[in-house]
């Protein structure tokens, strides 16, 4: 008789693969790579020459949780504005590192506007359009030399849509001469990886240390992005910035970016991330920051906000009460977090459950730090509240939402307040 397997045979470890060990880079005081937390990055979409609107958006992104903010530096007016933007942001008490995004004439702007070169915390260079033909190397070198002069790190960011055409043509010709050529798409992937690595090697030749270099290789297709970054991760130990470029709008952009970056992060690849979402007209730019945070938190890499679990609803939950309470509690937590983070260290790890009926409600509520199981259709009009796995009270009546919010506030103060921590230590 075949031996019955034991439970230990099925005890697969939960969690991501071991983090790829990359070289750590200091970007304006934020450490990127190695064992440091995966950093959240965003980018303004204001005209950088418009100082006031750019300052406002940088501050909004930073307050939303962006740990690195990139601004476009595309012309003289933008370069001249950068030091003023930096000064106004710092005067407001926000020290988020500023990254300059350079294309075509970055070498010229950095040379002619030393205040811009000094004010930025990192330069982003695209080797596909840093210069053309004979000027490519000299203009790339000029940016690296400026970065060395001001002791700034660089991100060498290759993009599918602006790939180095000379390198691509060379590789396509080589491939065409092979007895068994690979696909044109595979050649493009190799061109992207090689462009990043050759550019990094050139930067090192000039004198740029490895701990000043971050690489990225962005495409707009999920499977291509995964493959390109796997190739890049296998062939270098530079810190890597992840992002699906031109991800799109709304749920499409969110889902595609999450699918691509989630797989790579699970494999231990990625040191900074960004959701390159197309905003709705007049939409909130900070959505991309929130998406980064939610991805990292849902995968267990970082904690930013307490998690609010809520059931999706079914025929048992024809009342909208649990939906309204879940929304209100989530909004309450978001509004209170700036104060809570200062007063109650560790509160970001708290879990809250707002459930809609008796099927999974009590069980999910017990698993949360604090949870409530609201009555479903036809159930008794009572809502048991569970705290740390034990039933603590039962709420009823028109003030149920208000009462549960008060219980959450009380729980935060007791569990994460100084007195509570001292009692735990004792």
TrEMBL record:
Cofactor note: Binds 1 [4Fe-4S] cluster.
Record-linked InterPro entries: Dihydropteroate_synth-like_sf, IspG_bac, IspG_bac-typ, IspG_C, IspG_TIM, NO2/SO3_Rdtase_4Fe4S_sf
Residues where [4Fe-4S] cluster binds: 311, 314, 357, 364
Residue stretches making up the IspG TIM-barrel domain: 24-292
Pfam families for this protein: GcpE, GcpE_C
Pathway(s) the chain acts in: Isoprenoid biosynthesis; isopentenyl diphosphate biosynthesis via DXP pathway; isopentenyl diphosphate from 1-deoxy-D-xylulose 5-phosphate: step 5/6
GO biological process, one term: terpenoid biosynthetic process
Keywords noted in UniProt: 4Fe-4S, Iron, Iron-sulfur, Isoprene biosynthesis, Metal-binding, Oxidoreductase
Known function: Converts 2C-methyl-D-erythritol 2,4-cyclodiphosphate (ME-2,4cPP) into 1-hydroxy-2-methyl-2-(E)-butenyl 4-diphosphate.
Annotated protein name in UniProt: 4-hydroxy-3-methylbut-2-en-1-yl diphosphate synthase (flavodoxin)
The gene coding this protein: ispG
């Amino acid at each position: 008789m075949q031996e019955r397997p034991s439970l230990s045979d099925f005890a697969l470890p939960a969690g991501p693969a071991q983090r790829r060990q990359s070289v750590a880079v200091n970007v304006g005081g934020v450490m990127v790579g190695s064992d440091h937390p995966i950093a959240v990055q965003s980018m303004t979409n204001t005209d950088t020459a418009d100082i006031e609107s750019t300052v406002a958006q940088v501050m909004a992104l930073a307050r939303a949780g962006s740990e690195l903010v990139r601004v476009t530096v595309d012309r003289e007016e933008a370069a001249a504005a950068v030091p003023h933007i930096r000064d106004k942001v710092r005067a407001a008490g926000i020290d988020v590192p500023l990254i300059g995004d350079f294309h075509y004439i970055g070498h010229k702007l950095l040379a002619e506007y030393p205040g811009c070169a000094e004010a930025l915390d990192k330069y982003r260079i695209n080797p596909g359009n840093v210069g053309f033909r004979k000027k490519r190397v000299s203009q790339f070198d000029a940016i690296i030399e400026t970065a060395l002069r001001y002791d700034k790190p660089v991100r060498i960011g290759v993009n599918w849509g602006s790939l180095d055409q000379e390198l691509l043509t060379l590789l396509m010709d080589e491939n065409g001469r092979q007895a068994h050529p690979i696909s044109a798409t595979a050649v493009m992937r190799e061109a992207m990886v090689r462009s990043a690595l050759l550019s990094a090697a050139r930067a090192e030749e000039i004198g740029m240390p490895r701990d000043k270099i971050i690489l990225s290789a962005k495409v707009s297709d999920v499977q291509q992005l995964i493959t390109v970054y796997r190739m890049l991760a296998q062939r270098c130990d530079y810190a890597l910035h992840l992002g699906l470029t031109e991800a799109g709008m709304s749920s499409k952009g969110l889902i595609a970016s999450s699918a691509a970056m989630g797989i790579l992060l699970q494999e231990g690849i990625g040191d900074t991330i960004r959701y390159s979402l197309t905003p709705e007209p007049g939409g909130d730019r900070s959505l991309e920051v929130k998406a980064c945070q939610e991805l990292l938190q849902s995968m267990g890499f970082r904690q930013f906000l307490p998690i609010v679990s809520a059931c999706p609803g079914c025929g048992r939950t024809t009342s909208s009460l649990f939906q309204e309470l879940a929304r209100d509690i989530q909004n309450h937590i978001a509004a209170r977090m700036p104060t809570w983070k200062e007063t109650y260290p560790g509160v970001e790890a708290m879990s809250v459950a707002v459930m809609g009926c008796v099927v999974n409600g009590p069980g999910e509520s017990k698993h949360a730090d604090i949870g409530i199981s609201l009555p479903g259709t036809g159930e008794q009009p009572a809502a048991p509240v569970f705290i740390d796995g034990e039933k603590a009270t039962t709420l009823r009546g028109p003030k149920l939402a208000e009462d549960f919010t008060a219980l959450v506030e009380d729980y935060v103060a007791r569990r994460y307040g100084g007195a509570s921590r001292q009692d735990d230590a004792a």
